[in-house]
Amino acid sequence: MKIKVGVIFGGVTVEHEVSIISAVQAMNHLNKEKYDIYPIYVAKDRTWYTGKMLMDIDIYRDFETLKKYAKKVVLYNHNGAFRLQALNLFRTVVADLDIVLPVVHGNNMEDGTIQGYLEMVGVPYVGSNVLGSSLGQDKVIMKQVFQSLNLPVVDYTWFFDNEYFEEKEEILKKIKKIGYPVIVKPASLGSSVGITFVKDSEGIENAIEEAIKYDTKIVVEKAVENLVEVNCSVLGNYVNQQTSTLEEVMSTAEFLTYQDKYLSGGKGKLGSKGSKGMAGASRIIPARLDEKTTEKVKEIAKEAFKALNLSGVCRIDFLIDGKTKKMYINEPNTIPGSLSFYLWEKTDKSYEQLLDEMITLAIKQYKLRHQKTFSFDTNILSNFGGSKGVKGKLGKL
């Protein structure tokens, strides 16, 4: 009997289309003899849809046409079955899913939001849990966790949008103390959305205002000189971790932009059609690093993976000063673009194998988690006693 896999993607995020690219890639590489695949597309208006046509990238050229032919659905727990049900007159059951593969990016989805919903429903799912997803998405909290474990991060400062408008001069002084050039980022976005490289104080205010369009929390980091950007994908959980071949990412700008990641490869193939996504970005594999530096990157990647309590596949991005060889963790991507399959292909693991290992790992973790105690069979309210009960009167609780 095949395993029924629901693949969730899209969502209310500026990385909506990026998620679609990654998900269609994944669905086209899942083993069709082993898995029944059920696309679950979350539209920008939060409506959920399913239908086999959602596995074809061309259907997303016109979102309104898509909505006419795909089925509106909900996912819920029905007597222990994880039911995908159509919202039609007869409430048709599309499938009782065995596991969910979230292929989502950005805030409102990758940040623990969808993971929290899946936890509440009780359905097994692939990847990091709520805590790991949240930590991986927030660039401020993530840096604070890394610093607590003496893992290397660049000098930075951060602030909320209201603090900037109320204490602008003090914040600008802190940024000046870090030293230009700097990188200004929204704290909880990915895919380089809202990021600006700032050479001097003349451009800093515009950069901050651009970032504020996307987030309430802003990070300003010291730019690494002689920059070499290197990424390492990690597969596993808190017990075991595998590391991929490293990639050296090439950019036409001071940092890898959204254009570099998703638009420059737009004429490539995705299955049979469409953008390559992150796999289409310009890169050198393996990265041009000596053996000692390569091993150090992999070691730190594993430590960062465990520090944030991550699971499944993650890509840890590094910034390296090409002259001093100092390296810094840039950020983790808990659900990386294209699921980093191109790195694992260079590590002798096909995309099909990667997805299979991710799903197998998720099933094992689900079984292990359910050996722990999450609730008690006893009901302390059974003898509550009306207006009196646990710790006195209800009005005093």
Characterization of this structure:
With 397 residues, the chain is α+β, with helices and mostly antiparallel strands. Helices cover 30% and strands 25% of the residues. The strands form four sheets. The chain has a seven-stranded mixed sheet, sandwiched between helices. Strands 12, 13, 14, 15, 16 and 17 form a six-stranded antiparallel sheet that branches. It has a four-stranded antiparallel sheet with strand order 8-11-9-10.
Brief descriptors of the model:
3 domains, globular, Dna Ligase, domain 1, alpha+beta, D-amino Acid Aminotransferase, Chain A, domain 1, 25% strand, 12 helices, single chain, 397 residues, six-stranded antiparallel sheet, seven-stranded mixed sheet, Rossmann fold
Give the overall shape, derived from the CA principal axes: globular
Strand order of the largest sheet: 6-5-4-3-2-1-7
* CATH C-level class of the largest domain: Alpha Beta
Strand content: 25-35%
| Tally of helical segments | 12
CATH architecture of the largest domain: 2-Layer Sandwich
Q: What do we call the CATH topology of the largest domain? A: D-amino Acid Aminotransferase, Chain A, domain 1
- How much helix, percentage-wise, in residues? 25-40%
Largest sheet: 7 strands, mixed
Total beta strand runs: 19
Low-confidence parts? 266-274
- Whole-number average pLDDT? 89
Termini Cα gap: 51 Å
